[in-house]
Amino acid sequence: MAKTLHITFTITIILLFSSSSIPCTQSQTTREYYYWNENNGVEDLIDQVCKRTPFYDLCISTLHNNPLLSPKSDIKQVALIMVNNILSNATDTLNYIEALLKHTKDPQLEQALALCAESYIPVVRFTLPQAAVAISQGHFAFASYCISDAVKEVNSCEGRLVKSPSDKSPLGDRNDVVQKLVDVANAIIKLLLKA
After folding, report:
1. Which of 29, 61, 82, 171 has the greatest number of beta carbons closer than 10 A?
2. Is-contact 132 83, C-beta < 8 A?
3. Which protein family is named in the record (predicted)?
4. Burial of 45 (0-12, 13-18, 19+ CB in 10 A)
5. Where in the chain is the domain with CATH 1.20.140.40?
């Protein structure tokens, strides 16, 4: 009986120590995508996340020196910052559209800008704030849907301003930045969905 207890105890100890060295793929994947070792710092987090986006330089410049990021930040925080940056850019673009509307004398441009404002208003007031809330609550698929919907409105605006390849959009650069920020945010949210 003592020999059986000794063997059982020995096997238990061996299993206990060996199980701690067995790699757990899911756990490592989750750690890789969702949490970074805080000893590596926030710059490593930013670099590793931005490498997985289609616009690395834009991602880096958006997140670098952001006061909301700390050594304890995770990808969820990065995604939230990116969505809030999209909201900031979209709000700035809406304000720019409203300023252009006050000064334009071209009736066709005025109509196109008014339609752009109609596209941007729900994006700024509802869609992007909903995306931020969804990320905060862990509803990453809904957040992705929201920002994808927002970029459809931005593209719709651009389509109203550019009827032919020779047309120059007064919002082209601004709409392009919003489009790229959405692509970056979607790539980051995909990392969260994989976690």
Report:
1. 82
2. yes
3. Belongs to the PMEI family.
4. buried
5. 38-194
At the fourth CATH level, the homologous superfamily of domain 38-194 is Invertase/pectin methylesterase inhibitor family protein (1.20.140.40)
CB 153 within 8 A of CB 131: no
d(CA 182, CA 85): 10
Contact between residue 115 and residue 160 where contact means Cβ atoms under 8 Å apart = yes
Distance CA 195, CA 183 (A): 19
The model's pLDDT over 156-189, given as tens digits with 9 standing for 90+, comes to 999 999 877 778 899 999 999 999 999 999 999 9
H helix intervals, 22-166? 25-34, 42-50, 56-63, 75-103, 107-122, 128-136, 140-161
